[in-house]
Each structure stands twice: as structure tokens, then as C-alpha cells.
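Quiz preparation item.
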């Protein structure tokens, strides 16, 4: 009996050291449904859009000068548009993606912003890849954004250039169903 106990000790130690995986729940209502086929999505990848309701977008600095978005509880809508290309099978860091984030007032019916006024909606472009010196987030100050909120649907049209790194996305037209 004692021998069995000594044999079980390593198994008990391994099980006791197991890292607990926390459950992350997002209380924001972020469920959206794409209504129109996205013709502005580049052919080589897939595009998705999430509208985070009851949220706000904060653009933060990591202390080294690199920017990153934070979506927090708030009173606005935060749009997160993602273009993704899966890397070759068997590669760990072969995926490529670009994201666009912006924030609009939830009660806004129509919005038009251009050039420097794009900073008012925290328009941010992100490039995510194994591409040293190019990956990261960049504020967009050269472009035009038009948004129409009809209560049940949100339509946006964005044309932009950010000029600090190469990009595959430069024009997005999308309609999504809210709620």
C-alpha cells in the first residue's frame, strides 16, 4: 500500500501544478451579422467585422512608442474590421492580418470624417505579421470615413492610406446588422 502511495505522488504533483485557465466573458454586446458580401475584401484572405456595443476605444502607448487599441466599457460603438490570410500549414508565424478600429457615438445617425478629423473617431490601422519593422498599429490621418446608423444596421465606407508601412486594405465598404 505504501508503494502505491509513493508511485502516486508524482501524478498528484503534476496535477496540482496544472495552470488554471480563466474564463473570459465579455459583457459587451458584440454580436454582429454581415449583411452584404464584402466586395472590398482582398481576394487572398477573409474579412470579418465586429461591432462592440456599449464600448469605447482607447489608443494606448506601451511605453516604447508603440500604439495599441483597448476596447473598454463605454457608451459608444467600436468597429473592429479584420482582414486575415492564414499562413502555410505547418508554420507557426505565417499568418498575416490587418485590422482597422474606430469609435462612433451610439446615437449617431450619420457621420463623415476626412483627413485630420479621423483622429476624432480614433481611426487606427494594425498590421500583424512576422515582418520586423512593419508590424504594429498606426493612426490613420489620410482618408475618408462615412458611416450611416439606421438602428438595426450600420453601414460604413472607409478609404485610407497610412503611409508608414505597406498595406493590403485601402478601401472598406460594409453593412452589418446590429443586435
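Solution:
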Amino acid at each position: 500500500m505504501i508503494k502505491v502511495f509513493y508511485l502516486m505522488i508524482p501524478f498528484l504533483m503534476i496535477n496540482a501544478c496544472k495552470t488554471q485557465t480563466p474564463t473570459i466573458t465579455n459583457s459587451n454586446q458584440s454580436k454582429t451579422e454581415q449583411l452584404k458580401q464584402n466586395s472590398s475584401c482582398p481576394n487572398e484572405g477573409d474579412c470579418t467585422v465586429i461591432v462592440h456595443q456599449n464600448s469605447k476605444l482607447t489608443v494606448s502607448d506601451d511605453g516604447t512608442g508603440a500604439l495599441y487599441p483597448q476596447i473598454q466599457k463605454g457608451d459608444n460603438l467600436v468597429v473592429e474590421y479584420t482582414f486575415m490570410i492564414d499562413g502555410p500549414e505547418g508554420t507557426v508565424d505565417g499568418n498575416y492580418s490587418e485590422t482597422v478600429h474606430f469609435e462612433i457615438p451610439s446615437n449617431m445617425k450619420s457621420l463623415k470624417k476626412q483627413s485630420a478629423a479621423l483622429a476624432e473617431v480614433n481611426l487606427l490601422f494594425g498590421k500583424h505579421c512576422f515582418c520586423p519593422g512593419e508590424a504594429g498599429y498606426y493612426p490613420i490621418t489620410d482618408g475618408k470615413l462615412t458611416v450611416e446608423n439606421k438602428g438595426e444596421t450600420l453601414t460604413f465606407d472607409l478609404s485610407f492610406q497610412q503611409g508608414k508601412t505597406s498595406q493590403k486594405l485601402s478601401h472598406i465598404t460594409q453593412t452589418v446588422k446590429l443586435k
